[in-house]
From TrEMBL, chain A:
Organism, scientific name: Brevundimonas subvibrioides
PANTHER family according to UniProt: BLR3430 PROTEIN
Biological classification of the source: Bacteria, Pseudomonadati, Pseudomonadota, Alphaproteobacteria, Caulobacterales
Annotated signal peptide: none
InterPro entries in the cross-refs: ChsH2_C, ChsH2_Znr, NA-bd_OB-fold, Thioester_dehydratase-like
Pfam families, alphabetized: OB_ChsH2_C, zf-ChsH2
Name recorded for this polypeptide: DUF35 domain-containing protein
Record domain ChsH2 rubredoxin-like zinc ribbon: where: 21-51
Domain ChsH2 C-terminal OB-fold: 60-118
From TrEMBL, chain B:
Organism, scientific name: Brevundimonas subvibrioides
InterPro entries on file: Thiolase, Thiolase-like, Thiolase_C_2, Thiolase_N
SUPFAM superfamilies on file: Thiolase-like (SSF53901)
Residue intervals of the Thiolase N-terminal domain: 20-226
Protein name from the UniProt record: Transporter
């Protein structure tokens, strides 16, 4: 792409299309289980059909737990500049719990706080901007 | 199925051994185990290897064959099994079945590992698969293993009011045990203040509350009752060996998961809980019969949480049990008299076999300063990537 471009770090896992970012997962057409990332089969042993279809997950939910990644992880995580960040587990919809970076000051992060899906710039070089998914405090407004 | 006995166990001390090859570590452990069993290499009818993840293996997870091609080409059966950090338990389980079936009289299980430095990385050669949780956790959020354990610890503080001091005290207990074990890598006791002063790695866990990675090797030789009588010494029987995998809906923050489906009523760390309870059923025992337990304490959180998950203590009771001294030698349930992963550092595939070595030494009364007096029933519990759980019960 020669034009200015904003891309997801893994385009098969995160959609940046308007009106709002969405995680790309899978829903079981038979038992309704929601999965992220995408799966080729439902893994619920009580489900016999196991037919699955793509699902867009807008992801609003509550923080289940969190930590701080204090040490720089291996270079596969191409964030520039690097500084410690909050990681959290977020209970979103349909019994799905998703992990991601929480964009909030540590002193304001608490278990149970409402969060919604957002995006975070990992790196920007020239016209190329690479985004990953993140969670931000949810003010309750429609996105 | 016939009864199976431990004929001998052996280990290479844990540490960083850049000058010793993986095969040399394995040979050291095997030689020690064969010595305890009064056997020669040529007496072994089978060798089951907990296949290394990080080195050797001729590219396909093999090292039983490498070992016999180095030490003793006598035509024995070689089996190489996976299971990541639980591979040692899977290898033990396989060796146990071989002898219990009646087809083999003398079989060894062994694991040897030399670990890369620092955070445990992606396995070499992994594909960049957008549906692979491991790829996603590194690529989209840079989550290292301690982050997962830390989120469990943070949640425990929320649910049960566990304090930073109690997590630190769990590490202190492990390092006090490890100081009495010549096979442990970290043999200097720590204080709560020292643990809390060590660098914060992933809040709320400090460096001294997280297991390091080490090089090491361990081996266990199993045999029939006739073989055990011939080897002499106390008869150590395998009361049970069980392995299991995870259950749908498990609420654990399981490495390397980035999206999970927790459901009410499903046990936390179900792969290990299922293995432990299967082992208890097979052995015909319950929590009250266990004299000591060796668990996979990747962090201080595990010391508090795992005994509760298995049913030794009520949820949240672990903190009080620890601080009252009930988890140390002489207490109600000695946890990791060996010093555990916090004193050894993890040599992934070898670790579950090191646990079995400790169970055997304890039951034989050979554990020196760290001996649990009068121990008659000892058990292990281990967790491996891929939702692998294993539990082994030995009895005297």
């Amino acid at each position: 792409m020669e034009e200015a471009a904003i891309t997801a770090v893994i385009p098969q896992a995160l959609s940046l299309d308007p009106p709002a970012p969405a995680l790309l997962g899978t829903r079981c057409a038979d038992c309704g289980t929601l999965y992220y990332p995408q799966v080729v089969s439902c893994r619920n042993p009580d489900c016999e059909g196991k037919d699955v279809a793509p699902a867009r997950i807008m992801a609003r939910g509550q923080l289940y737990s969190f930590t701080v990644q204090r040490y720089r992880p291996p270079p596969l995580f191409a964030i520039e500049p690097w500084q410690p960040y909050v990681l959290g587990l977020v209970d979103v919809e349909n019994g799905l719990r998703v992990m991601g970076i929480v964009e909030a000051p540590l002193e304001e992060v608490r278990i149970g706080m409402p969060l919604r899906l957002s995006t975070l710039t990992l790196n920007a070089e020239g016209a190329q901007t690479v985004m990953t998914h993140s969670f931000v405090p949810d003010d309750g407004a429609d996105t | 199925m016939r009864p199976v006995y431990v004929l001998g166990v052996g280990a290479h001390p844990w540490g960083k051994w850049p000058g010793t090859t993986q095969v040399e570590l394995a040979i050291h452990a095997m030689k020690a185990a064969l010595g305890e069993a009064s056997l020669q290499w040529r007496d072994l009818q089978g060798l089951v290897a907990a296949s290394s993840r990080f080195e050797g293996g001729m590219g396909w997870g093999l090292h039983a064959n490498e070992l016999v091609q180095t030490v003793s080409e006598h035509g024995l059966a070689c089996i190489n099994v996976g299971g990541a950090c639980a591979a040692g338990a899977v290898a033990f389980h396989t060796a146990h079945m071989l002898v219990a079936s009646g087809q083999y009289d003398t079989v060894a299980a062994m694991g040897a590992e030399r670990m890369p430095k620092g955070f445990i990385p992606r396995p070499p050669g992994s594909a960049d698969d957008p549906a692979d949780h491991d790829f996603l956790r590194w690529k989209t959020m840079g989550a290292t293993n301690p982050a997962y354990w830390a989120m469990e610890a943070q949640r425990r503080m929320h649910d049960h009011g566990t304090t930073a001091e109690t997590f630190a005290a769990a590490s202190v207990t492990m390092r006090r045990h490890g100081a009495m074990n010549p096979n442990a890598r970290f043999r200097t006791p720590s204080t709560v203040d020292e643990v809390l002063a060590s660098p914060m790695v992933s809040d709320p866990l400090h460096l001294l509350e997280i297991c390091a990675v080490s090089d090491g090797a361990a081996a266990v030789i199993l045999g029939s009752e006739d073989q055990a009588r011939r080897a002499g010494g106390p008869m150590i029987q395998v009361a049970a060996s069980a392995i299991a995998t995870g259950r749908f809906g498990d609420p654990a923050a399981r490495i390397p998961t980035v999206g999970s489906t927790p459901r009410p009523g499903v046990p936390h760390t179900s792969e290990v809980v299922t293995a432990v309870h299967r082992a208890w059923d097979l052995a015909g025992i319950g929590a009250e019969d266990v004299d000591l337990v060796e668990i996979a304490d990747n962090t201080a959180w595990h010391i508090l949480a795992w005994p509760e998950l298995f049913g030794f203590f009520a949820p949240g009771e672990g903190d009080r049990m620890l601080t009252a001294g009930e988890m140390t030698i002489g207490g109600r349930l000695p946890v990791n008299p060996s010093g555990g992963f916090l004193s050894f550092g993890e040599a992934t595939t070898a670790q579950a076999l090191m646990q079995v070595c400790e169970l055997a030494w304890q039951l034989k009364g050979q554990a020196g300063e760290r001996q649990v007096e009068g121990a008659r029933i000892a058990m292990s519990a281990v967790l491996g990537l891929g939702a692998n759980g294993g539990s082994i019960v030995l009895k005297r």
